[in-house]
Design brief:
Strand order of the largest sheet: 1-4-7-3-9-11-13-15-17-19-24-21
Pfam families: DUF4097 (PF13349), SHOCT-like_DUF2089-C (PF22746)
Largest sheet: 12 strands, mixed
InterPro entries: LiaX, Toastrack_DUF4097, YvlB/LiaX_N
Number of helices: 6
Number of domains: 4
Mean pLDDT: 81
Strand content: 25-35%
Keywords: Coiled coil
Low-confidence stretches: 37-53, 210-221
Length: about 500
Amino acid sequence: MNERERILDLVKQGVLTSEEALVLLENLAKANTDGSSKPAAPAVSPTDADSDDDAEQQPDHDADAALTELNTRIATASGSLDAVNAQLSQIAHQIAANDEQIIVLDTMEDLDTLSAEKYEERGQLKRENQTLAARQEELTAQQGKLKDELADLQRQRRRLTKSGFSSVFGEDWQNSAKGTLNDLGKTVGDAASQVGSIVKQTVDTVMDNIDWKDVTVRVPGVATEKFSHTFEFDGAATIIDVKVANGDVTFASWDQPGFKVDANIKLFGKMPEATPLTAFEARSHIEVNDAHFVFQVPNRRVQADLTIYLPKREYDHLSARLLNGSVTFTDVSGKDFYVKSTNGELTVTGLTATMLETEGVNGSIKVTGGNIHDLLLHTVNGDIKVNATPQTLDLQTVNGTIRTTLLSDFQTLTASSVNGNVKVALPASVAVSGEAKTRFGSVKSRMTGVTSEKDHKHLSLDRPGTGSGVINVATTSGTIQLKDVDPE
């Protein structure tokens, strides 16, 4: 195989581009021209010439065979890696789908609507995820080995190709080719700079001359259906049960005898039902009678923002459970209120209740006004703010500030935060005893009859007055501030 055939073979194998091959052929032609002008070499006998040809062709043949074998091994390793990547992608997709269904089933369990079949389905999904996770770990290890093997084979091919070039063209061809390619790169770079400048000027002209208020850009995404619907129900129910996977829920009272639900609904993905409303109803559980009002939307492919109007009456029990959404109460009256939200705020205004209990993960809690006897407000990441007249309070957060303003006598106040401040304001006439302590912060007091030293970490309270309020406030890394209620 002569030099020209060698270059063409490297182009076929993808080692050289056509431009690089042209440069090398041009340099080869120049070398041949220079060689023809030199004195003729001594004559060589036919026998010697054949021996030399065989000696030259033997290394070329060995190099070609080695390169072919390397290319075969690289193709095999690359195909195996692609297959492993496809399996990993499929497993990750299946695990995500199973996790989504498990969350829906967990939501149904919170609503006490999880049947035996669904319970078994959830167990099967969890077991399947464990099996998939183990397989995923095996494939990940195999993926790493294949990547290392492929990288090693590619290094071997580069070394073999480089040695082949050196044996054919010597060492000077690299400098010549590099100079030519550098000139080509400079020319291409100048052209690219000119094109980029033209494109930028064109874009600037478009931006300056188009009224973007009149332009609507459609971004491809998940198919959605949006619609609004009003549900109206008759009944004298005093037990309210609401569950929504995605969406905000607002409870408000009104003067009408029946219930009304204004719903703004989004359906994500294609659904087989004929109409959006039918698809929503198929993925919801709605039941209203003289005892219960049940409105549950546990499917995560449905977002339902609900405004629920409740007839003015005293409700025995109200339960609201949300995964992703905020809850708002406005002028509602009842006995026992329970709210659980994973991601969302809780805002309570003018609530009359015997007890309000909340459990949150990510979201703040705010209670203003009303007449609530017992407050149990717990969250993980969020602030708690109370400005009301409760008798007993249990306020807890991990990452957040607690602000409590009590407007009258109270019985007990327990407030704690791990990474946040605790602020308590009480009427100056109210009796208070108990303690306030912090580990890394300080306790400060501007409360009448309660003094604290600078950088004090523990403070005992014993102030006379009306009632018999007991407080126990604590924080780990925050500051505790005690003061009187600001005069109106």
